[in-house]
Structure formats: C-alpha cells, structure tokens
Amino acid sequence: MIIIGDYNTLDIIRETDQGLYLADKEGNEVLLPNRYVPESFQIWEEIEVFVYLDNEERPVAVTDEPYIIRDDFALLRCNQVTSHGAFLDWGMVKELFCPFKEQAFKMKAGGWYLVYCYLDEETDRLVASSKTNRFLDNKDLTVQQFDEVDLIVSHPSELGMNVIVNNQHLGLIFSEDIFKDISVGDRLKGYVKKVRHDNKLDIVLGKIGYRKIEPNADIVMQQLEDSRDGFLPLNDKSNPDEIKRELQMSKKTFKKAIGTLYKQRLITIESDGIRLVE
C-alpha cells in the first residue's frame, strides 16, 4: 500500500518520458517525475520517496523532504490566505491547505503556526489543523512518572507552557519550572514530573528529585572548566535571576548541584563565588 503523506520505499519498475514509475509489493504504482529521477538507477532497484497529491490531486512521488509528514506536528509558515483558507509552506511545490474551520486563530500571511497534518477522509486530501489539542489523548497514557519524553512546545497558558508529549499526549510545564527561553514549535527532551488523577501530565525539562542533581552538577562543572580561572561568580547567596541567566536553572537546583560538588571536594565555596579545586 502506498501511503499518501509519508515516506515509502518502492521498486523502480519502468522508465518513461515523464519519469520513473514506482510500485509497492501489491503492484500499486506512482510516478516519480523527471526532475526527481536520480542520475543513476536500475530497474527493480528500491528507492525511498515521499508521496503526496499534486495540483491535479494525483499521487506523485518526490525526493524532496517535507517539513511535516502525515500524522505529525510541525511549526509552519503561512504563505497566503484566500477565501478558501490558508496555504502553508511545508517544503513541497504544492502548499499545504488549512481550512478556516481548522484554524484555532485566524491565520495571517507571514505568520508561523504549529499544526497537525492529517488525511481528510471526506476529500482524501492532506490538510493541516492548528487545533492541535484535538489530536491528543490523555485517556490511555503511555508514560509514567520520571519517564524521559519527547516534547513539542505547543502554546502558552496562564499557568505556563503547554507541550505535546511523545506526539500523543498533552502536558504542561509550569512557569516556575521554566528556566530557559522556549518557543512554540521547539522540540525538547523532558521528564514526567507528575501524573495527576485526571491523567494530566506535569512536565519538567530537567530530571526529577535526586535524579536531577548529577546532571546539573555536571553543568556547573563544565562552566567552571570553561572559565579562564576555574571560577564562577555565583554561590548559594546569589540572586536567583543571576543563576537563571547564567546557568538556566533554579537557585534550588543550583544549590543542590554545588552541594554535590562540594561534598566530592571538587569545588570550594567562597564569599563571591565557587572555584575548582586544583
């Protein structure tokens, strides 16, 4: 089966004036136009291509790499808005359509929007939706507390920043747990801090509890080693904003990190900062 909106590994079955015809194991065929034909090839050789619908709504294979594939999320730029809807740049010759009904907020040309790409069952066309929450489900969670997860920054809220967890679930990073600049569309690693009784997920960008100390101690050590004299003008008396600006971590985390390094006799804590032990 040739999947529209995704990568397919197909066999080259014949060459024509229009390009190469490719086929899957069931014999379904699709054209790879001349502009995408590789310099050298052999009949029955396998080739990986992306398949989507061209301007005449016919399946076509290309070797271009899209910015988004079917059933995935990505931050895309709106090229134009017409009376039908918005058209987004996704790296293909034909733009990706986002109907007005699928826009969480009215899109504008030049704006960037986090969208989900799916195959519309009514039209058999690939479309985008910025109403991303409706493609997420927290009823049956596939994660648990302390798990490392893949995140896509979704949209801000009064409590912090909503994130897409493992392309499946909705999570939230509370404002007090955000110690570096993050923007909609950013892809990050994070950890499940808490699973609430209603299956809502609290997410943090650093490891939890005792698991969090060691990596952040390494960050402090790296900063000390990179400094010219093995000195960092921060200690447990420093302003939290200074610590956040320099190390992108909270004061509480920083104190735990330098406490670990001090116990291991790797640093000394001075009145105006910390220093590597020679």
Could you give the topology of this structure?
Elements: E1 6-15, E2 19-23, E3 29-33, E4 46-53, E5 59-62, E6 72-81, E7 85-89, E8 96-99, E9 112-120, E10 125-129, E11 148-156, E12 160-165, E13 169-174, E14 187-195, E15 201-204, H1 210-226, E16 231-232, H2 240-247, H3 251-263, E17 267-270, E18 273-276
Parallel strand pairs: 13-15
Antiparallel strand pairs: 1-2, 1-4, 2-3, 4-5, 6-7, 6-9, 7-8, 9-10, 11-12, 11-14, 12-13, 14-15, 16-18, 17-18
Helix pairs in contact: 1-3
CATH architecture assignment name of the largest domain = Orthogonal Bundle
Tell me about the largest β-sheet.
Answer: 5 strands, antiparallel
Number of folding domains?
A: 4
Query: Can you tell me the residue ranges where pLDDT is under 50 for at least 5 consecutive residues?
Result: none
Give the helix/strand class. mainly beta
What would the principal axes of the Cα set say about the shape? elongated
Q: Write the element-wise H/E pattern from the N-terminal end onward.
A: EEEEEEEEEEEEEEEHEHHEE
Beta-strand percentage?
A: 35-45%
* Strand arrangement in the largest pleated sheet: 3-2-1-4-5
Using the CA coordinates, give the radius of gyration. 25 Å
Quickly name the level 1 CATH class of the largest domain: Mainly Alpha
Named CATH topology of the largest domain: Arc Repressor Mutant, subunit A
In whole angstroms, how far apart are the ends? 64 Å
The number of helical elements comes to: 3
How much helix is in the residues?
10-25%
> How much is the average pLDDT?
93
